[in-house]
Amino acid sequence: MTGPAVSVVICAYTERRWPDLVAAVASIREQDRPAAEILLVVDHNPSLAARARVVLSDVAVRESPRRRGLSGARNTALDHATGDIVVFIDDDACARPDWLAQLVAPYADPSTLAVGGLAVPRWPSGEAPAVLPPELWWIVGCSFTGQHPASTGEGVVDVRNVMGCSMSFRRSVLVAVGGFAEDMGRVGATPLGCEETDVCIRLRQRHPEGRIVLTPAGVVDHRVGADRVGWGYLLRRSWSEGVSKAVLARRVGAADGLSTERSYVLEVLPGALRRELRCGARAWIGGQASEAGRRGSAAAAVVLALAATAAGYLRGRVGRRRRSR
């Protein structure tokens, strides 16, 4: 196999996702472009690690000694990975057969620092719930409308940051900037985030000439749990995202930390709200009460997600000022 050696990393913390984890590993085994190694990092769960060592015999299993959370587990992967390129996929996602080849191809350009792919949601009922219009699919860790033009199927494009469910890095540059910030990101089921955005911004600040790109041809199918498709999770995740954005802005500066979010808030979300209200009104006039109700729920979700995110951001900023005092 020509080209750089690749380590594929899966981080896991719970046995509740065991069937998903087994499926994720199988999808990596079946890639058109083989990985040099599959590395499973278990975050503070000895029982899960022991089970994986017995069942997943061709997978290198490592237990994370670092700070509990996804960032610590990813940094443990950097400690052990042998590949020139380190690729990350979630434990509840399955990669399509050409995913790895698509994520590795852009590294032929020596200026490429990181490459991300798309994450397509697999809904519990087979279709997206009303509470999650496509502009809000980031809430369940998937690619969303307005994320970037690449999400509509265009070619490889430069982006500010990649998404954690489907991303890769040159290991050397990622290690050089200190890896992922362990005081950021998801811890167990606590839906914090922005650690991928943080590390991508730090990479670009260190290497202004470097490229971080997204290839829409590199696709994973991301299972969405039934506990993530209701109003409660929407509000918790949005609030946590706001808090995380406040931390991010403090770490890397608001100009870099919020550069993409401004257009999303000022253009994408208002467009989604207008669409849902317009379609809902048409459905109501046409006597389609069910469709009108669905559109109304989607419009309410856009408003509530924005409000909860803004409230979380303000809470993060105010909390920081109080601690400083």
Automatic annotation (TrEMBL):
Pfam entry (one): Glycos_transf_2
One MF annotation (Gene Ontology) recorded for this entry: glycosyltransferase activity
Keyword check for Transmembrane helix: yes
Enzyme class: transferase
Entry-linked Gene3D superfamilies: Spore Coat Polysaccharide Biosynthesis Protein SpsA, Chain A
Segments traversing the membrane: 298-316
Superkingdom of origin: Bacteria
Keywords of this entry: Glycosyltransferase, Membrane, Transferase, Transmembrane, Transmembrane helix
Its EC number(s): 2.4.-.-
UniProt protein name: Glycosyltransferase family 2 protein
Organism for this UniProt entry: Actinomycetospora aeridis
